[in-house]
Design the sequence.
């Protein structure tokens, strides 16, 4: 399969601040990629460079086979992080205008396409309303339509779920998957790891302007297997006693108190399955499970391993900072 | 590529013109203004209140009167008699009507007649009483207290006139004396001037008679009927309208140019800011390049400004045709007006686009806008000197210096002396060169500015952006 986007050693600075450094990236055609990382990591800057809205200081870039997106702008759908509409413009007119800027010919066909799309996202009847009369979530759907209506080959969505309620998040997710199923290349960025985990086939992690991870979803978990065993002692048992017993199980490095119960950390080289069995037989439990790391855990793990200066707690706070998105 | 620019331009034009703000501000407002020009004279009753009362005269001149020339108080009384006042009014009216007719055509004559009637009001009822010339100063001062009583309409005392002792016959040391008038407070100001003229007339007549001459014969000798100059034109002679109309014309066309360019420029700045602050900018930039966007927007607003200009010029020309003033407009100057419009518009539009792209909110634009407005005000403030001496050094410099040169040139072209043709050519060439520089610099600022949020940049920052990109 051909590559939709190739970035080689791309670097971008804003004055003193290095936004993106030495970024190598290849996005396969037809892929569903997630760019993840905390706010300010360089996701939007990378996307803007892909879109040729800003230009890299150095490095090579190729989009849809062309040296820059300027030559293939009409084949790219882009939903920016900073979304906006013309407040006084009518919804239908706005979508038509953006579509025309993308090279779609005006006329009755375009009008029909706009009406069809509005109906699909549940905005039928809003065609002749002014954009400012719509709620923020509705405006976001309008922009999504403007973005996909020209039937682009590549779809770039910057934080597409922010500001949406759970129902609309699900609707948007289905629409993305549909676009993906139609063979389009999809890239979306988010700082809410959980969303990426549920949707993406390929993950690119960016932190402080550098790429820290780039691999298919199913390969990510491999080297980051179960890190511990979470358990909740059975009702009526002596909880402190249960904890002491669990600590004495071979292969357990230590037991931490968590929100819901306890978590046993594994010693290096210990087999998670064996330890789980041993804890279960040593302590009466109402619930016990292997803890598989979330994307967030993996992200924190990678970053703290690469940079000893940054503490785990700080990093998690950074990620939670603006994370208001929920489950899909 | 070109199609996208035109799509932007079309949206820019329609979204500006098809708004209530534009229709009210640019179309309806001038119509109301024109309406008011015709309506206001009818609304405002300018008729002075009818004055009624007595003028008391203390005549110390010692002029006793001769065979045909009576004393000064008697002359004044005759001057304020009903027949004399009516004759005076009729004469003034005829003179004004005739002048108005020559100037503005028959249509205006009737209007002028009405205006005069209003301006002059009803013939006042004024009587003149002579007081004892030997009345003491104290007694006169005492009498003046009466001026404070009543109203100018109740027939009471209106004014006290003191004719000085040597007013008619000069004394050796002091020469001729004069007169003093004390009037009551809150008297209509249209009362005082005729009173002065009548007193001066009476004193003059008395002096002539006292010198043994015949005042009427002398008056016939010194009076020459004045005649209005005629201007030779291609279509024959016509009455000169004097410099005033020409000047008004130059001012008016410069103002039309100014207002249309400013309208387009203002809209351009606001729409750029709107696109930035509503964050629609990035959506646009994912489809078009910043330069395409800027070009499209400038072209769109150019059509807006051109609409405004053509509409106003058409109204102006139609109005002038109505009043038979079309000969004042030089077709060649209208052509140059259009040329200067494009130069002025592109210069101002690029400044406005640069400012709009640099800031995020309208109020942040204020500090960057102030210097632009200051410069733009120069032709408005200085049109008079530019017009009076279009070939002064100052006017020449203004005519060559962008961005005020187009405005200065429009005034100078209609000015009192013809300006050298090379200056017209030079101003156009410099103007076009300046347009390129302005647009080039703005494109640089625009490219960086449109995605820059946060603190509004100052002038040095903008200059750095120009050097940077």
Sequence:
């Amino acid at each position: 399969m051909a590559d939709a986007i190739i970035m080689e050693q791309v670097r971008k600075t804003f004055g003193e601040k290095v936004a993106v450094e030495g970024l190598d990236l290849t996005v396969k055609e037809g892929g569903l990629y997630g760019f993840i990382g905390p706010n300010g990591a360089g996701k939007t800057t990378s996307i803007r460079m892909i879109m040729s809205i800003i230009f890299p200081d150095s490095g090579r870039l190729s989009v849809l086979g062309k040296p820059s997106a300027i030559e293939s702008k009409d084949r790219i759908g882009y939903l920016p992080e900073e979304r906006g509409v013309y407040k006084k413009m009518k919804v239908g007119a706005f979508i038509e205008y953006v579509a025309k800027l993308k090279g779609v010919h005006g006329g009755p066909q375009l009008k029909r396409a706009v009406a069809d799309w509005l109906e699909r996202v549940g905005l039928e009847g809003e065609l002749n309303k002014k954009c400012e009369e719509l709620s923020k979530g509705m405006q976001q759907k309008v922009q999504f339509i403007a973005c996909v209506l020209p039937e682009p080959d590549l779809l770039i969505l910057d934080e597409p779920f922010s500001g949406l309620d759970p129902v609309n998040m699900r609707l948007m997710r289905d629409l993305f998957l549909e676009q993906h199923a139609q063979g389009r290349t999809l890239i979306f960025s988010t700082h809410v790891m959980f969303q990426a985990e549920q949707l993406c086939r390929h993950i690119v992690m960016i932190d402080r302007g550098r790429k820290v991870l780039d691999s298919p979803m199913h390969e990510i978990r491999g080297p980051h297997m179960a890190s511990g065993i979470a358990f909740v002692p059975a009702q009526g048992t002596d909880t402190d006693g249960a904890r002491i017993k669990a600590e004495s199980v071979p292969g357990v490095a230590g037991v931490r108190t968590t929100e819901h119960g306890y978590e046993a950390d594994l010693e290096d080289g210990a087999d998670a399955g064996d330890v789980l069995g041993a804890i279960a037989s040593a302590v009466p439990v109402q619930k016990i499970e292997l803890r598989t790391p979330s994307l967030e855990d993996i992200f924190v793990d990678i970053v703290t391993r690469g940079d000893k200066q940054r503490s785990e707690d700080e990093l998690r706070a950074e990620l939670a900072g603006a994370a208001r998105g929920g489950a899909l | 590529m070109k199609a996208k620019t035109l799509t932007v331009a079309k949206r820019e034009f329609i979204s500006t013109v098809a708004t209530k703000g534009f229709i009210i501000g640019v179309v309806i407002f001038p119509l109301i203004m024109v309406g008011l020009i015709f309506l206001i004279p009818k609304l405002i009753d300018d008729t002075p209140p009818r004055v009624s009362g007595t003028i008391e005269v203390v005549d110390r001149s010692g002029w006793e009167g001769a065979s045909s020339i009576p004393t000064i108080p008697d002359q004044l009384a005759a001057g304020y008699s009903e027949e004399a006042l009516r004759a005076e009014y009729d004469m003034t009216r005829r003179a004004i009507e005739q002048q108005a007719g020559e100037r503005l055509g028959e249509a205006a004559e009737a209007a002028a007649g009405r205006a005069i009637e209003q301006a002059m009001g009803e013939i006042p009822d004024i009587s003149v009483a002579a007081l004892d010339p030997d009345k003491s100063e104290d007694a006169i001062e005492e009498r003046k207290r009466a001026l404070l009583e009543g109203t100018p309409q109740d027939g009471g005392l209106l004014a006290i006139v003191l004719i000085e002792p040597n007013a008619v016959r000069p004394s050796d040391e002091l020469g001729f004396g004069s007169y003093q008038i004390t009037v009551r407070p809150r008297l209509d100001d249209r009362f005082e001037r005729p009173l002065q003229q009548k007193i001066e007339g009476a004193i003059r007549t008395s002096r002539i008679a006292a010198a043994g001459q015949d005042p009427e014969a002398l008056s016939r000798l010194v009076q020459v009927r004045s005649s209005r100059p005629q201007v030779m034109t291609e279509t024959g002679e016509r009455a000169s309208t004097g410099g005033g109309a020409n000047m008004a014309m130059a001012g008016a066309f410069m103002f039309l140019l100014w207002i249309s360019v400013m309208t387009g420029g203002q809209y351009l700045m606001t729409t750029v800011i709107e696109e930035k602050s509503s964050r629609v900018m990035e959506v646009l930039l994912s489809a078009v390049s910043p330069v395409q966007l800027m070009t499209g927007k400038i072209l769109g607003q150019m059509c807006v400004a051109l609409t405004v200009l053509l509409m106003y010029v058409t109204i102006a020309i139609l109005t002038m045709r109505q009043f038979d003033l079309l000969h004042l407009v030089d077709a060649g100057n209208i052509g140059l007006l259009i040329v200067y419009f494009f130069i002025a518009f592109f210069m101002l539009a690029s400044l406005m686009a640069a400012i709009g792209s640099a800031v995020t909110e309208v109020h942040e634009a204020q500090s960057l806008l102030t210097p632009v407005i200051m410069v733009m005000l120069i032709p408005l403030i200085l049109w008079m000197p530019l017009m009076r001496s279009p070939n002064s050094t100052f006017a020449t410099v203004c005519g060559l210096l962008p961005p005020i040169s187009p405005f200065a040139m429009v005034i100078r072209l209609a000015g009192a002396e013809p300006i050298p043709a090379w200056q017209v050519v030079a101003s156009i060439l410099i103007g076009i060169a300046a347009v390129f520089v302005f647009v080039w610099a703005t494109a640089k600022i625009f490219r960086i500015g449109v995605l820059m949020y946060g603190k509004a940049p100052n002038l040095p920052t903008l200059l750095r952006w120009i050097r940077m990109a």
Remarks:
- The longest strand of chain A covers residues 3-14.
- The domain at 3-220 of chain A is CATH 3.40.50.300 (Rossmann fold).
- Residues 322-328 of chain A have pLDDT under 50 and may be disordered.
